[in-house]
Amino acid sequence: MAKDKPKISLLLSGGGARAAYQVGVLKAISEWYPRVHHSPFTIYCGTSAGAINVTAIASYASCFRLGVKKLEWIWARLHSRRIFRASTLGMTGHLMNQWFARLQAEHHDRPPFGLLDNRPLRQLLNQVNNYERLEKQILAGNLHGISVTVSSYKSGQSVSFFQGQQALTDWDRAKSKGRRSLITTEHLLASAAIPLVFPATRIGQSYYGDGSIHQLAPLRPSLKMGADKILIIDLINQKLDEKDYTKAPGLATLGGHLMDTIFSDTLTADLEHLSRTNALLHALPTKQQKKLGMKIVEHVHLSPSQSFEPLARKYYCHMPPMTRTLMRLIGISPRDDAAITSYILFEPAYIHALIELGYQDALEKEAILRNFLK
């Protein structure tokens, strides 16, 4: 990669099954490049399901289209059973094990709680990811850095595990820190461990969960790794349906509200802060900017043009029967409470619809994206 070219960061936020939308966007972008062409991105930052996506394509930074094709191939063949144990026997056995574990004496190690058993996802990630390729891409100069953000249940901090060029250093800021590490399946599982839904993952001596929980500054990993431009593919759910707000919110309404807040609100605030900083730097001469150790960082923020909820309602019947039963037992109607359903509906028809939505949204923004990725 030419040294004078700007470092462009790809930032993918979390959202469970919704992350299939990001695959569609990347598919459209990849078609604008020759078959054998390096990635336009040299920095990759992901949280939750977004972390799984960036790891997959960063491994193929020297051949962008191939990396995106592989990622699309994986998502297009997903089923719930590849993410969690979806059979009646599997789900019942998992919940019984969780219950019995909590009846044991305190000196016994108890497994982290999660309604769903995500061991199939661990197997899938071990099968499809070649983590050694990340280091090869770094040594070849095709990859400047990759970051996977998790949340520490011990310290209550956001931790970004990164792998990249030797010039990158650890950082410590308020409620967040960056630590150099070789990215593995454990980091991805931790980052995607949605609270209560999937169990936390142990890394070293601590347990970590979904990276969106304590992530007050989602742009920080990109900025700390030296990004000049940032392309953000967000999964903010467009609220198109007017609900009856005179009714008291139930468990599903509260859960959907909290999940939407966790995955989106901090990014909105961080983008506002970046825009204000850029405006101030524009008013300063270049020498003064360098003296302050700051620079203008361009960004493009792409989010879905349509709500996920109608699609979740349309395809909720594809969800395994036992999963639907479990949701109803805890007071959630998959059809009526589509906000939550949209996160865990890992079924082919729904995923294909999200990939197509992302693809079409990227085509509509083609001129903006092409100019930004120069």
From TrEMBL:
GO molecular function, one term: hydrolase activity
Residue numbers covered by motif GXSXG: 46-50
The entry's keywords: Hydrolase, Lipid degradation, Lipid metabolism
Active site positions, chain numbering: 48, 210
PROSITE patterns in the cross-refs: PNPLA
Source superkingdom: Bacteria
Coiled coil: none
UniProt-listed InterPro entries: Acyl_Trfase/lysoPLipase, NTE, PNPLA_dom
Presence of the UniProt keyword Transport in the record: no
Gene Ontology terms describing biological process: lipid catabolic process
Residue span(s) of domain PNPLA: 10-225
Protein name (database record): Patatin
Species in which this protein is naturally found: Photobacterium marinum
